[in-house]
Write a structure and sequence with these properties.
Distance between the termini: 12 Å
Number of strands: 0
Helix content: over 70%
Strand content: under 5%
Order of helices and strands: HHHH
Shape: flat
Number of helices: 4
Length: 108
């Protein structure tokens, strides 16, 4: 169940960050509201996850997946491009999340 809660926290954070970009510095009302609500939802579900899983593992996965997913969203919806070093760095982040999931006993 903790992994489902963490997934919700990650998705809410990606939605909130996308809305933050669309809010144009909090000058557009609805994206601004979505950003604030999204971050509240994200932190709430993140806090629930912290009841059962180690903080370091949770934060590594939450932030790592957030970076990779928001970069994909920014590429698709905001036409932002990343150079090769940025893509390689994100590949390493994703590899780190996979290593934690497959080999770490801390999260199980």
């Amino acid at each position: 169940m903790a992994w489902v809660l963490l997934t919700v926290a990650i998705i809410a954070e990606v939605i909130a960050t996308s809305a933050l970009k669309a809010s144009n510095g909090f000058s557009n009302l609805w994206p601004s509201i979505l950003a604030v609500v999204g971050y509240c939802v994200s932190f709430y579900f993140l806090s629930l996850t912290m009841k059962t899983l180690p903080t370091g593992v949770i934060y590594a996965i939450w932030s790592g997946m957030g970076i990779v997913l928001i970069s994909a969203v920014a590429w698709v919806f905001f036409k932002q491009r990343l150079d090769l070093p940025a893509l390689l760095g994100m590949g390493l982040i994703l590899a780190g999340v996979i290593v934690i999931q497959l080999f770490s006993k801390a999260g199980h």
